[in-house]
User: Which sequence fits this backbone?
């Protein structure tokens, strides 16, 4: 059996109710609730018309420039899956474009995260399918393999396992591990509710910023 060329089974997935709850939570609040230690990298930017990405990770690892295993993943994707592809960050060849993305949208894929390049950026910009990628190029891919599906991958140090929760908005993408979703949701939701109260106080002109002065005093700042 060739090493590095295999389709593995996905043995666990975050449930649909959890996915739905996280759609209302900002990526920044999720990130803050995970000690700001989880980040998909600044190159993975949203290219689509707008909207939140939230779903279950269907992971792909492929060699730079080749998209055979991405096609294999599309043949096996389920509604609500997010296709998360580690292509090494190489931008020489676009690994997905209008046809593949339109097919992904048609079968109910919740979005695409690609550590590599895409093409047909005009189509992406005018469609609601969430697409995050590291770059854009017109040069197309090869379809020879190798690659793997449903294996742990890492994007700029953020580890994503098959079945994990992935969330994206205008600030980027974040992964919540399968066995931490409840804990992270509770913390992120509490933070989001707290920020809503702060925003209301800002609008009312009653926000309390005395904490800044206390922090300066504690840190020993002179001239305050």
Assistant:
């Amino acid at each position: 059996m060739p090493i590095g060329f295999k389709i593995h089974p996905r043995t666990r997935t975050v449930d649909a109710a959890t996915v739905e709850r996280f759609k209302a939570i900002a990526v920044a609040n999720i990130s803050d609730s995970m000690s700001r230690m989880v980040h998909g990298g600044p190159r993975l930017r949203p290219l689509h018309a707008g909207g939140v990405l939230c779903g279950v990770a269907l992971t792909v690892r492929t060699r730079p420039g080749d998209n055979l295993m991405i096609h294999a993943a599309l043949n096996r994707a389920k509604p609500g899956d997010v296709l998360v592809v580690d292509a090494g960050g190489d931008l020489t060849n676009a690994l997905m474009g209008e046809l593949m993305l339109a097919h992904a949208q048609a079968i109910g894929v919740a979005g695409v995260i690609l550590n590599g390049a895409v093409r047909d950026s005009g189509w992406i910009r005018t469609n609601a399918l969430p697409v995050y990628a590291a770059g854009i190029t017109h040069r197309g891919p090869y379809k020879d393999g190798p690659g793997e599906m449903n294996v742990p991958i890492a994007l700029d140090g953020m580890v994503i396992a098959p079945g994990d929760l992935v969330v994206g908005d205008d600030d980027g993408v974040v992964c919540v591990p399968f066995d931490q979703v409840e804990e992270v949701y509770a913390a992120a939701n509490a933070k989001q509710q707290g920020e809503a109260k702060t925003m209301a106080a800002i609008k009312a002109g009653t926000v309390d910023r005395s904490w800044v002065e206390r922090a300066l005093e504690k840190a020993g700042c002179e001239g305050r």
The longest strand covers residues 53-62. Residues 6 and 148 are 5 Å apart (CA to CA).
